[in-house]
Write the structure tokens for this entry.
Amino acid sequence: TATERIAALEASARAQEGLHLYQTAAQTLEEAVRDRERILGPDHPDTLTSRNNLAYAYESVGDLSRAVLLFEQALSDRERVLGPDHPDTLTSRNNLAGAYESVGDFSRAVPLFEEALSDRVRVLGPDHPKTLASRNNLASAYHSAGDLSRALLLFEQTLSDLERVLGPDHPDTLTSRNNLAYAYHSAGDFSRAVPLFEEALSDRVRVLGPDHPKTLASRNNLAGAYQSAGDFSRAVLVFEQTLSDSERVLGPDHPNTLKSRNNLAGAYQSAGDFSRALPLLEQTLRDSERVLGPDHPDTLDSRNNLAGAYESAGDLTRAKQQAEVALATATRVLSAGHPLTSTIRRTLESIVRSRRDDVG
């Protein structure tokens, strides 16, 4: 039947995502949405869910402009069909805020996350797990927008609430502990960040197991904190272990494995080991372009890191080429004010200064 065909398409898309074939999965979901619209109608709840899933798929492949448009449509449709306070509508509001955050549009992301939190407190109650998730999302948006003082206060409050409501070992509590540690890290408070990352890793090993993807993420975060604190030898060791585990558990092309490879290369670079950093950064960029596409934020981050490594190694011509490509793409795909765009712009400015000094 037609319904079975749609279910098969969506199952196929999930399998394609599992194989890291994100572009193919998005195309499969496009077909599923067309079929649902034709058979069930554009306003059927299942059609609205399929449209929301397609928006997620666009976000996964870095097609953020299409993701935002589709999340906006999904929210508008759910408000009209289901009502402004339906749980699915509240989820759509949260998803759209997350998409705005992804493109660096914090002037729209933060107020929408605040609205989503207020709505969930009113409709679901202050201690509902989804309300606590909204509080965590708002804290992350404050963090992304550079408002660390508000982010820290809200992360601390959310962790306390999660420990009380769900317990200290609930996966959401473990995530919240990791997020608070990351906020301390961003604020340069390594004396609190490192012990909390160590606690978060220990808890995830105990509760989820050593090979769980979130445990691997915790190990990666701890290594990053060691690196930021200047403990390069420990950072390199933990990054190497994490990359090896990620390749074994997730596969060499998983986005988290690509991030691990990028992070290890960065640690080599910080330690001045360019003979190992550059080949690994070049490999990571090639892999990110192949798996995620040239416009994905992770690919842009890889290209920026490679540009910075070329600069540090004295290869200013190649550094400038990579930074210019990264900046043009980031400006087009994200926005001129996105944090990653700003980071890339600073990299290019540094390279231009280095070339000027070199000539002078």
